[in-house]
Design a protein that fits this description.
Blueprint: H1 2-23, H2 29-58, H3 69-72
Region (Disordered): 56-75
């Protein structure tokens, strides 16, 4: 699935952005938190989406049946 590959690439880019923020000593700690919060929120959404798509790829729903994706989630 191309979408899985694109989401994984986006996650890698977000990791890179977080690393750049962490390494930059000129940014105060409280500002680092403010810069990283939206990035980490995006990462959480993309991670859940990646898990959902991977689950659906590995466990495709039967015709005329709900996908049941909420059954495998822990949260």
């Amino acid at each position: 699935m191309n979408s899985i590959k694109h989401i994984q690439n986006a996650l890698d880019e977000l990791d890179g952005e977080v690393q750049k923020i962490l390494i930059d000593w000129s940014i105060p700690l409280n500002e680092k938190d403010n810069l990283m919060l939206p990035i980490l929120q995006q990462k959480r959404v993309l991670t859940q989406t990646l898990e959902d798509l991977t689950y659906l790829r590995d466990n495709p729903p039967k015709p005329n049946q709900p996908c049941g994706i909420s059954k495998y989630r822990e949260d």
